[in-house]
Write a structure and sequence with these properties.
The protein has about 260 residues and is an alpha/beta fold. The chain has a single domain, classed as Rossmann fold. The chain has 8 helices and 9 strands.
Amino acid sequence: MMKRFENKVALITGSSQGIGAACARRLASEGCRIILNGHTLDDRGNALIAEIADLGSEAVFLEADLSRADQAIGLVERSIQAFGGLDILINNAGIEKHADFWEVSEEDYDAVMNTNLKGVFFAIQSFVKYCRQKDLPGVVINMSSVHEEIAFPHFAAYCASKGGLKMLTRNLASELAPLSIRINNVAPGAISTPINQELMSDKEQLGRVLKNIPMGRMGTSDEVAGVVAFLASEDSAYITGSTYYIDGGLTYHYQEQ
């Protein structure tokens, strides 16, 4: 039986670990060839390439700094060359900076906005140009956050970047639908990933977070990857411009402590 992503190629930015790596494994398990990405190829990337080979697929790792538009564009172009085409773009790379609003530096603001919004914008643009040139359909999935919707005090730039991503996705859904290009957001809540190690090691803070989650637990990277795989597949052929929350019920139950 043919796998859902057989003969498909996906670029997953920021995929050395956590959610990005889980998405790579999930799509590869269903036949997709994968372009992995990070600032630098290290042991994590090499191990993931080997895992994907064990799953019966192929992967390459391309280094790029997604905060720079030229590198975001170049990454897409190199990804197309790697396997001779590109079907799925998953914009997973992202950063956050903790600070009181009145202490946020221009440097930190730019780092967050450039990685979480500007780089995504120009990566999508490059992918769309390719799809138009080849008259091909395409799928874009942006890794947003529940904080495109709910407040996150002391992370103002992060929230602004995810709010911008929400509107960008809605706008592009309308503009790109006639080109047979679908675009959706995935918005994780509290997920057990390396970026949340500090939270998970602070029992008091973790307890406050879990009280805000009706399901009473953090999510997993594999659970996020399952939704990404659905949105990347033809099972979601009539879905565009939406945000899918993966949060255990957090978003509409949330109360800031």
